[in-house]
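#struct-queue
[09:14] JT: dropping the first one here, sequence first, then the structure tokens:
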Amino acid sequence: MRAFIATAVLLALVAVATAPVASATTSEPDWTDDGYFESPSRSDDAPDDAAPPDRPSAVLDGDGVTMSSDRSLATGLQAAPAGNRIVGSAIAAGGTAVVSGGALTKLASVTDRTATRIGGADRYATAIGLSATHFPDGAAEVWLATGENFPDGITASAIAGAHRGPVLLTRTASLPASVAAELVRLAPTRVWVVGGTGVVSDGVVATVRRTLPGATVARVAGQDRYATAAAIAKTFVASSDVVFVASGQNFPDALSTGPAAARRKAPTLLVTATAVPAATEAQLRRLHPTTVYVIGGSGVVSDGVMSRIRNITGGSASRVSGADRFATASAVADRFFTPTTPSLIVANAFSFADGVTAGAVAGTLASPLVLADGRSTPPRVTVDAARRVSWWLPSEGRVLRYTVVAHPDDEFSAWSLLGARDARRYDVIIVLTTGESSSYCDGDPVSNQWMSQQYLPQPQPTGEQYSDRCKTHRMDSWREFMRRAGFTGTAPPESLVGGPQTFGGRTIPVPLARSASGATVEAGSYQLSIGADHAVVAFDMGLLTADEVLWAILTTRGLAERFPTQVEGDVVGAGFYNDGSSGYSNTSADHKAVYTLLGSVDLGLPGSQYSPVGHAQSARAFGATVANYCGFMCHPAAPSPFRGSMGRFEYAYGWLANGYWPPGEFDQRAGFSRYQSFAKWF
């Protein structure tokens, strides 16, 4: 009797049982010269002992990713079809010298966005271009700051974004004629001149008044940059539960703060690395926020300053930072923006001016600002953050995401995406095999020193390859893991049988598999179970070919009318594949079949197609971090920071690795790493 043990997968899953785990983070490793690790980029960025971000934060100087219209696996990152998969604009602020054409093109492709550049001959012209493009009908309020230094413009950008107005730049001693012309076009009723006479002279203010005789022109300023930021907060923010704080001594970490603060209608205040200036303290006491977000590592805003902020407000102070300026901007995008943002704004990390004016536009568009430089390859953390805020999601309702799992336990290699649940997404898990060909099924009893803490196959010994007992044990573990990971509430499974499929004008036959007796049989039977938030389609196809993976996906897509939504989005492969020279190598034939199919056949969905790959593999396009990784992979035998109570994955699947799967940051065994990299194909 053939046993499609996948039926057991879907029986009466119960509420989530989360194991208590230790929670910890660790500094990211330095990159080596061979390209597997990448070195921190700038001497003025946060030091190595800065508080680590919630995600890897190295800077990509070059990872071998190439652009090509040829959709082959060898070419890596692919350009999306012009009329498909577009979720908004990727806007470069400034010319090609500050955000290169190659970097913009790659960011637009990997984020499924239309590349747009707004730049001028200088910073004043770029600010005018941003204003003209995003405020075509004028603006009621305009903020005018010096283009010769950063602090006043950065703190003004948050307020301008919240009030849906532009920031224009001026020289200290004279108002450029082009800026005066833009003021006339905007026809504001009020112009706010930010900063004292040392940064924007009284002569400039007089010129603005002559240019706009019907407008109110008011200066908002203090005796220094800290007091000016405080004056802006006092003028525009009557109350706020949230305040953003950044360094007033250097601009990189503060650049991305404006759009995030604008979203919360919160002010940005400035501090030094070691002290809270009196003007800043006065505003913190006045506003009395429950949360202060400190942007930047401990090298730019010390832990002592954070402690002082807590004492002043009586609330919490939370650091949002990365190992460098690129990673800090990415961490801000991760923390304060959710998919799908209307736009993605990209500015140069080493020149403040375009970022100041772009920050106000980003705030108006409710979009993050990420950082790049003049090189043709964007920083890796920038790509990753940009992709995360660009998931294809419908403007209303829900979208189907298909996750294609090669073997039970391989789902974890896509968990950084699969586990990021979103109310607008309906997950469809496609399990292709029962893992019955596993070398772990050798007929020997399971024995390891952590047996008493783990879910183990019973009764022992386990079955041999292709046996019904092996299938049972693999799928029992899969069922237990998914239950503990929160995939509960599906209806009892129903058995269905699929027939041949047609795709691209050719017939895709029913797959073949090996029975328990060793005979070759058709593998058309599968199990379907549907829940409110996800569905599982469980096949029993044995060794896989790319056509068999295609058949399973097509069969599943044919079930769409059974799901709560019929709007299709992304396809995510689960089965780590790495044939590169760096990292953990995995060239399993089944994994390769999933990788090959998703990388060579455009399924034509509105979303994109992804496969988990090695961290340094040329096809890698972006990455993501598994939320609560310790909850999955912590283990009593693990090194710090992963030592702790048994995680869900270790509990369910420990028997497949003698009781312990080593956890870690990148390219861990079988792809069960905290940070997971993906190829993006179509």
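[09:21] JT: and here's the second one, same format:
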Amino acid sequence: MNSDAVGSATNALNSLTHVEAARWGRDLSTLLRITRMNFRHPWQVAFAMGSTIMAAILQLLIPQLLGRAVDQAQTAIGGGVAGSAAGQALWTPALLLLAVSALRGLFTMAQNYFAEAVGHHVAYELRLAYYDKIQRLSFSFHDRVHSGDLITIGMLDLQGVRMYFSTALVRVVLLTMLIGIGAYMMISTDPMLGLVALSFVPFVAWRSSTTQLRLRATWLDLYERLSVLSRVMKENLAGIRVVRAFAAQSYEMLKFDRASKTALGLAKDLVDIYVPSTSAMTLSFFFAMGLVLWIGGNKLVAGEISVGTMATFLTFMTILQMPVRQIGLMVNAFARASSCGSRLFGLLDQEITIRDALNARPLEISEGTLRFHHVSFAYPNVENRAILKNLSFEARRGETIAIVGPQGSGKSTMAHLIPRFYDVTGGAITLDGQDIRNVTLESLRKAVAVVQQDAFLFTTTIENNIAYGDPWAKRQRIEHAGEFAQLHDYILGLPAGYETVVGERGVSLSGGQRQRLTIARTMMLRPSVVVFDDSMAAIDAGTEQRIRAATRRFAKDRVTIIIAHRLSALMHADQILFVDNGEIVERGKHEELLAKRGRYRALYDLQTRPGDII
């Protein structure tokens, strides 16, 4: 082997060592972070740890009490004491053993109770922090992360972190007490027997360490597959009507079965790692017990130890059998907590890109003028391809701006920039001269309302859906919003009126009714800028005309931006912007654009005289 090959092998080994060291460092950092969260509840932690220590001490007393009882019984029998007297002599150690066992049971119960209390307090805090983070993360984050993955992290990963205190930290204290103090007591009683009894400990320590590495990697893979499984299930449930319409149940079942089998295979791998390891550790324990029986039996025959001492050692070994079995569970708990914690904290530590500036002030509306100053925008992580390029326009209070253009031209992106769902990558957007990046998000989004294309409704009453932006609004105001959206008469015709509960995502309503209800919800906010992002596509022409008439009255006190594909919806606008490939290629009023005989005129002719075009 030449020197270059040796150097390459050495570099590869060093790189692998650094990777493993970094992974250990991340795991340790994650576990320390979870530990600090648990210790934010000092009283519950103190009671849990105190109960654990007392339970361990009482459990360690049992072998000694049992050994003394055996020696006392042997002395009474060997000394020729009468049966009644011998029985009386055994009552005291028997009652003492019973009392110690009962107290150990009580302290064990207290340990389990307070350990679970700590875990549930931490889970409560993490659940709130997780949900709050999800609410504040930007649209760009939700664009690239599937909601099924978020559900898996918020449920399964959070559960793994919750169980860390009771299944890992408390077990560390219990096992340390039982093995550490038990080892000292056995070695101090008989060094040879003590060392033989503890001969399994090095093997268990080695085996548990190697198992932890394999378990952690498999847990990570399993949770990734469970995320896929959640994603498949969520998509199927959300699109169940499409599945039924296309008779695709067998295909969906096959897709779910494949994802489920992959998760099942990883779960089997976990069992294949965990069970042989635990079995090997248990086997080493029984081998050590066999040696104790053989060596201790010879010592007993030689008169070097008493029967009570032998009984004490065997009882100690029996008590240590439980900690040995739990070492595997404890290692599994550490591995699971580090895997789950790394995923959960990875989300909690996500940087919030859309947030208030350091000295952000509430937006102050005076003239109500909206301006785009040479605005450019590119979605992050999409090869920095520009969606909008050097856009500039102005809209004053009472004006209606219409935006039209082919699909993918950037119309909806413009709508999402005004309330800062995304931040511009070039130029600026101002309201009354105030850069929207320098005002508070809360005040901005109260002033700017976007009626989305997706008419999402919550599973609650129609009244609550309309008043979502202002839950304490009076009924009269809610009904006025319903009238504006041409929905009031329909709602009154329902058996429960405004108290009617709509189904999940509003499935009990038609597409047009859902869109009108979202329009009513937006009108409740009384914004200074309202954006209709193709929000009337599912509404019939007659209803749309009535809503447009109401919108024109509503538009007198605010800026109105209409994004639509049907030109009949925006002919009345004060200014029409034709956007293509992220640029404004034409602008003007309806008649002016028709006179130019450009892109707008071509679209108009296509919609009004399609037969002539063909």
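[09:30] RK: nice, looked through the second one.
[09:31] RK: The chain has two domains: 41-348, 370-613.
[09:31] JT: good to know. The CA atoms of residues 377 and 425 lie 5 Å apart.
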